[in-house]
């Protein structure tokens, strides 16, 4: 499988903005740099054809995220992790053949993985940032368009490592059933989670007890139809006041990878 160049439209200060020219929707873009790509987690916000219609295979409310680390590109949030080496050269980004994990999931989730690869595979892509360069408060938007005029729009969220430092990695099994629990805001439906430990060979060696979790896992959506095991990056957010107690420390949970997922079978009803 060959993945060709991803062209990055450049805008030099004082010059005219480059425009995506293959779709019916004209957009002005400026060049994106390696530091800008690496500074954000890019969350998929839109996937449409040249006429603005939703692209087949991309689920509404997708939790797909793209991030860049060094010379590596990763797409997560679907069924499998999709990754590839990339290299910027002037206005082009050369993407090598992607590598994917081989998990089986529900057909609609697997279709989204295939749609991402098909969008890039064998295509010469145009990409750039949409927001004005001098608007420091705007959330950056990364526009990627192929020669058929189809496009993916990604919104940037500051990468957690830059905000909080290096994370602790944990593995959680998520039950497809929630549990009513009490929070500071009152009664709520909590996730039921339990921690799993693996040895260096990736063999499961210990499973913890179920407990309630009232927090949020960034980049992940609960699915009551699936049993899942997640690899999470947990970031410790210490209070600004160094005199704060341990009780003041908060945690940010971000999805790194879905390790296991299986469809929950509906119980069979007995006929009288």
TrEMBL record:
Record Pfam families: DUF4377, META
Domain DUF4377, chain residue ranges per copy: 174-261
TM regions (residue ranges): none
InterPro entries tied to this protein: DUF306_Meta_HslJ, DUF4377, HslJ-like_sf, Hsp_HslJ-like
Span of the signal peptide: 1-20
PROSITE patterns referenced in this protein's UniProt entry, alphabetically: PROKAR_LIPOPROTEIN (PS51257)
The DUF306 domain, residue ranges: 59-122
Keywords attached to this entry: Signal
Protein name (record): DUF4377 domain-containing protein
Organism: Snodgrassella alvi
């Amino acid at each position: 499988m060959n993945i060709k160049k991803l062209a990055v439209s450049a805008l030099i200060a004082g010059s005219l903005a480059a425009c995506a020219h293959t779709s019916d929707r004209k957009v002005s873009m400026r060049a994106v740099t390696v530091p800008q790509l690496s500074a954000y987690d890019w969350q998929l916000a839109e996937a449409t054809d040249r006429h603005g219609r939703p692209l087949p295979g991309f689920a509404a409310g997708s939790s797909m995220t793209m991030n860049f680390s060094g010379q590596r590109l990763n797409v997560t949030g679907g069924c499998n992790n999709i990754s590839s080496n990339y290299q910027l050269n002037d206005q082009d980004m050369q993407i090598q053949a992607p590598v994917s994990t081989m998990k089986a999931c529900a057909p609609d989730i697997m279709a989204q993985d295939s749609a991402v690869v098909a969008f890039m595979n064998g295509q010469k892509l145009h990409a750039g940032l949409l927001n004005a360069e001098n608007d420091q408060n705007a959330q950056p938007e990364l526009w990627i368009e192929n020669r058929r005029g189809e496009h993916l729009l990604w919104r940037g969220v500051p990468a957690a490592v830059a905000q909080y430092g290096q994370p602790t990695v944990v593995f959680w099994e998520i039950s497809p059933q929630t549990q009513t629990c009490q929070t500071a805001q009152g009664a709520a439906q909590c996730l039921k989670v339990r921690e799993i430990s693996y040895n260096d060979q990736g063999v499961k060696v210990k499973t913890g007890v179920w407990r309630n979790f009232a927090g949020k896992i960034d980049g992940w959506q609960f699915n009551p139809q699936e049993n899942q095991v997640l690899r999470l990056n947990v970031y410790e957010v210490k209070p600004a006041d160094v005199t704060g107690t341990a009780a003041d420390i908060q945690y940010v949970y971000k999805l790194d990878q879905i390790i296991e997922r299986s469809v929950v079978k509906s119980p069979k009803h007995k006929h009288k």
